């Protein structure tokens, strides 16, 4: 499903995104090294095993990026002008290697753009859940979206 135009969104609308993703060691290792994050909890199995978690934690910025990415096809693919910001980013539970993650999105607010007639700002609340239905990440995303197909 392609993204929706501003006019098509309704406050309160909720989407359960179909694509799920199992996080691998390679995902975590590549993302951590690409972003120059040397945190031993993400990269050092021995150090992580000695932590309170007892195992490697998945890099939280990967978890956040995956959550947004899983939502794009159903929310803003082809209709996005720009992401304006993210707010209230939380990681209520850790993500571990092998967790299978899925995303949900709820439309919290929408308003016409003052600077771009015909476009509007939609505030999405994204949630990322693991295979145990625990929320592992959530945030608000403010997106400037094209007004209509015309």
From TrEMBL:
Q: Which SUPFAM superfamilies does the protein's record reference?
A: Thioesterase/thiol ester dehydrase-isomerase (SSF54637)
Q: Which Gene3D superfamilies does UniProt cross-reference here?
A: Hotdog Thioesterase
Looking up Pfam families in the UniProt record yields:
MaoC_dehydratas
- Which superkingdom does the taxonomy of this entry point to? Bacteria
* Classification via CDD domains: FkbR2
Domain (MaoC-like) ranges: 11-123
Q: Which PANTHER family match?
A: BETA-METHYLMALYL-COA DEHYDRATASE, MONOAMINE OXIDASE-RELATED
Q: What is this protein called?
A: MaoC family dehydratase
């Amino acid at each position: 499903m392609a993204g929706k135009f501003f006019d098509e969104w309704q406050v309160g609308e909720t989407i359960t995104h179909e694509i799920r993703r199992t996080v691998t060691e390679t995902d975590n290792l590549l993302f951590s090294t690409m972003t120059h994050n040397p945190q031993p909890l993400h990269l050092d199995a021995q150090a992580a095993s000695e932590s309170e978690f007892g195992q490697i934690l998945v890099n939280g910025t990967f978890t956040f990026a995956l959550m947004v990415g899983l939502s794009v096809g159903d929310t803003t693919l082809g209709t996005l002008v720009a992401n304006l910001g993210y707010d209230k980013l939380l990681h209520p539970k850790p993500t571990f290697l092998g967790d299978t993650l899925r995303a949900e999105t709820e439309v919290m607010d929408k308003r016409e753009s003052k600077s771009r007639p015909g476009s509007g700002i939609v505030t999405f609340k994204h949630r990322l859940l693991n295979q145990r239905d625990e929320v592992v990440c959530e945030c608000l995303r403010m997106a400037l979206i094209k007004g209509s197909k015309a």
